[in-house]
Amino acid sequence: MGDRLEGKTAIVTGAASGVGKAIAKKFASEGATVHVADITQERCEEACHEIGDSAVPAQVDVGDVSSIKAMVEKAAKTSPRLDILVQCAAVVSMQPITEITEEEFDRVNGINYRGVAFTLSEVAKRMIPDGKGGAIVNFTTLNRGYPWIGSYVSSKHGVSGITRCAALELIKYGIRVNAISPGPIKTPLKDDLIKRFADNPPPGSEYLQEQGFVVPAGYESAPEDYTGTAMLLVSPEGAYFIGQVLQVDGGISA
After folding, report:
1. What share of the chain has pLDDT > 70, as a percent?
2. How far is Cα 62 from Cα 11, in angstroms, rounded to an integer?
């Protein structure tokens, strides 16, 4: 247990599993009150039970702006102020570009990009009047191009863009906005994508089954491998990081 975030309040989206849960646990262990935001109340409560007394369930559908507003409003009412936002909630889709549907494209971008933009906006609007600044960390992707996940990759590139734009707008209020671009992670999200790919591989995708990222670090990351970077970006030690997209990928982008 530490005290680096003592007295701070954080919202972490996608916090019921994977990287989001690992970060929520880390923040709580460092003294923060953490609003555990995820799609169902049940998932939020289960994660809070595991994290401890400083975790608060915060059910939200980040694909629904009205749900985002309600979640942030409730968090703001139950906490002295909002200091930190970390956005991990995301979905992955697999469709060849010639078969992409409007519904699936809108679903993926609605959660991964639009949801990030509006959650960032709502939290910033709560931080600004306090005059005490804050820290926002978004999760994007190291993928610059990869077949059959165009909806996902494009949504995450949007996150990188809005991170940089928001950072320059909000730093005058002492609000620092940055992003983490992770390498391959052992999470339920990745497991689901691999299973769906194996069950229904798109035409011409045979070579992808023999492809994959070569990780110079020698191993695929775990959710806990991102907690240190998240801590840096939300703590005073990271005060000079503004509008950065940090590649935390085991050397893939080197």
Report:
1. 90
2. 13
Active site residue 152: yes
pLDDT of residue 254: 85
Query: Judging by beta carbons within 10 Å of its beta carbon (0-12, 13-18, 19+), is residue 131 exposed, middle or buried?
Result: exposed
Which member of 146, 152, 219, 226 is catalytic?
A: 152
User: pLDDT band for position 207 (50/70/90)?
Assistant: very low
- Tokens found for residue 135: 């820290």
Instruction: Please answer whether residues 134 and 85 qualify as being in contact, where contact means their C-beta atoms are separated by less than 8 angstroms.
Output: yes
Q: Looking at the domain that runs over 9-248, which CATH code has it been given?
A: 3.40.50.720
Segment 132-160 shows an average pLDDT of 91
Of residues 138, 126, 144, the one with CA closest to residue 167? 138
Phi, psi of 220 (to 5 degrees): -80, 140
Place of tokens 């409007």: 102
DSSP secondary structure string for all residues of 41-71: HHHHHHHHHHH-TTEEEEE--TT-HHHHHHH
- Identify the burial level of 168 via C-beta atoms within 10 angstroms of its C-beta, where 0-12 means exposed, 13-18 middle and 19 or more buried: exposed
Nearest to 148 by CA among 89, 108, 115: 108
Measured CA to CA, the distance from residue 107 to residue 202 in angstroms comes to: 20
For 194, residues 6+ apart whose C-beta sits below 8 A from its C-beta are none
List, in sequence order, every residue forming a beta bridge with 13; answer none if it has no partner. Answer: 37, 87
CB-based burial label for 156 (10 Å; 0-12, 13-18, 19+): buried
Cβ-proximal residues to 86 (8 Å cutoff; 6+ apart), any chain: 10, 11, 12, 13, 20, 23, 27, 136, 137, 138, 139, 230, 234
Mean pLDDT along residues 63-89:
97
